[in-house]
Design brief:
- The structure is a single chain.
- This protein is an alpha/beta fold.
- The strands form 4 sheets. The chain has a 5-stranded parallel sheet with strand order 3-2-1-4-16, covered by helices on one side. A 5-stranded parallel sheet has the order 6-14-7-8-9.
- Strand 11 and strand 12 form a beta hairpin.
- Helix 2 packs across helix 4, helix 4 packs antiparallel against helix 5 and helix 9 packs parallel to helix 18.
- The protein is globular.
- The structure holds flavin-adenine dinucleotide and iron/sulfur cluster (2 copies).
- One iron/sulfur cluster binds next to helix 3 and helix 4.
């Protein structure tokens, strides 16, 4: 048996930096077969325990080995609605692949790459359509079209309910389209999944801000929705609250990425303005920081420095994104924290003053706490800083339903089993409940909520 993992074919560095096309090229059938052959088909399948939605990993890999790609895709879809998306963006090295018995030798099966292979196969070879289920007579509203909302909508439609998704932005997909860049997750992949939802009869209405354009009372009383799922996400950026953060040149990753990804500022056919910095600094160490750095490089920055207050080992970003960012030329300034931003004579951002850090005792997250080293301040020139230090629930979530219970950070409080809020018939899931998390976690919430909503409707 071949023991070495089969690497993902990737675009060359020069191809990557020349545009926004996808870096990972996907396995060919031959490569997928070779990787699937390495799987030991473990009886106790520890890899499944690492997957938040319990994908039957040995089961779908066995079907790949047998050349039954459609069945392999359908096997994944039993628990994961969007394999082509999750195969691309799940932090596999901390989930399914971390638990693979071969991980100890550094040779874990590339489960994500195989999942992407069959997800893409299902898109290019759509399976025969199953009959749409008989209508239940109930209408369900889904607010927010991120992975939580879309997964809920799909399952509810399959259960026979008439589903309408309301999305504030002009394009559905949530972070999948406004946050994660094309070179990691092409929008066409998301559009293909949306096609399937529409085929199931899901209506998607964009440019509707629930709480403003329409109220929950409108949805219930005027439009007849018997239940509502809230998948509002956590899209409000966090800033550090340090001096100079309001200078022109300092912006949130959320704004920067939305302008580029959703509003296509990189595309000459669009007139969306976006600052293209020369010496860009990005603050943070997660996926959002990696995405922002790599986008800045593609927009023509001469230098992109990523400032992170811990070390590489504590970076929350996917390992592949960290590697890609570094290969593409992002410079990591580790154990460094910004203290204040400095302006030039015209009042624009000119530099960031930083302090060096060292790691102390672990904090409540279990990671070692970064501690400033007194007297180690230094200044770094920069004409654009992108803040990627986290996001929180938008305070406007309160407007959606004033009676709904939220914690002090704005997260909607739900029953952990059913995801029901304190308002009868209203359920919530995804980042709006747990804070910034992962696509697969949000998707799992959407599916759980759909089952609970079905139960609620049929027993009410
Ligand atoms: P979202 O995806 O945030 O969707 C919420 C939607 O609700 C939005 O479209 C919003 O416009 C809409 N909405 C909000 N309020 C209203 C309203 N009142 N009316 C109508 N619509 C409303 N996770 C990973 O697993 N892997 C990654 O590689 C990864 N990379 C990321 C990169 C970036 C740049 C970001 C920002 C996040 C990343 N994440 C990643 C995290 C992941 O994308 C989120 O955890 C996930 O999208 C949360 O899904 P959601 O459905 O809860 O919310
Ligand atoms: Fe792994 Fe994500 Fe697929 Fe689960 S959904 S098997 S965690 S890639
Ligand atoms: Fe295959 Fe690894 Fe899962 Fe075993 S643990 S079934 S080798 S993927």
């Amino acid at each position: 048996m071949k023991l070495e993992p089969i690497p993902m074919p990737e675009a060359s560095i020069s191809e990557r930096l020349a545009g926004f096309s996808e870096v990972n090229q996907g396995y060919s059938e031959e490569l997928a077969q070779a990787e699937a052959e390495r799987c030991l088909q473990c009886k106790n399948s520890p890899c499944v325990e690492g997957c938040p939605v319990d994908v039957d990993i040995p089961g779908f890999i066995k079907l790949i080995r047998e050349g039954k790609y459609t069945q392999a895709g359908l096997k994944i879809k039993e628990t994961n609605t969007f394999p082509a998306i999750c195969g691309r963006v799940c932090p596999q090295e901390r989930q399914c692949q971390e638990r693979c018995v071969l991980a100890k030798r550094g040779k874990a099966i590339n489960i994500g790459y195989l999942e992407r292979f069959v997800g893409d196969y299902l898109i290019s070879h759509p399976p025969e359509q199953t009959e749409r289920p008989a209508l239940s007579g109930y209408k369900v509203a889904v607010v927010g079209s991120g992975p939580a909302g879309l997964a809920a909508a799909g399952d509810l439609a399959k259960l026979g309910h008439q589903v309408t998704v309301f999305e504030a932005l002009h394009r559905p997909g949530g972070v999948l389209v406004y946050g994660i860049p094309e070179f990691r997750l092409p929008n066409i992949t998301v559009d293909n999944e949306l096609k399937e939802l529409r085929r199931l009869g899901v209506e998607i209405r964009t440019d509707v801000v629930v709480g403003r354009t329409l109220t929950i009372t409108d949805l219930r009383e005027e439009m007849g929705f018997a239940a509502i799922f809230l998948g509002l996400g956590a899209g409000a950026p966090i800033f550090l609250g340090i001096e100079g953060e309001n200078l022109p040149g300092v912006m949130s990753a959320n704004e920067f990425l939305t302008r580029v990804n959703l509003m296509r500022a990189f595309d000459e056919d669009y007139d969306t303005p976006v600052q293209r910095g020369r010496n860009v600094t990005v603050i943070g160490g997660g996926n959002v920081a990696m995405d922002s750095s790599r986008v800045a490089l593609r927009l023509g920055a001469e230098s992109v420095k990523l400032l992170y207050r811990r070390t590489r080992a504590e970076m929350p970003a996917r390992v592949e994104e960290v590697r890609h960012a570094e290969e593409e030329g992002v410079i990591f300034e580790l154990l460094v924290n910004p203290v204040r931003f400095l302006a030039d004579d015209d009042g624009n951002l000119a530099a960031v003053e930083c302090i060096r850090m060292e790691l102390g005792e672990p904090d409540e997250s279990g990671r070692r706490r970064p501690v400033p080293i007194p007297g180690s301040e230094f200044t770094m020139e920069t004409d654009q800083t992108i803040m990627a230090v986290g996001a929180r629930v938008n305070p406007s979530a309160r407007l959606v339903l004033p009676d709904m219970e939220q914690d002090e950070k704005g997260h909607i409080i739900v029953d952990p089993e059913t995801l029901a809020t304190n308002v009868p018939g209203v359920f919530a899931g995804g980042d709006v409940v747990v804070g910034e998390e992962t696509v697969i976690r949000a998707l799992g919430d959407g599916r759980r909520a759909a089952a609970a909503i079905d139960n609620y409707l049929r027993s009410s």
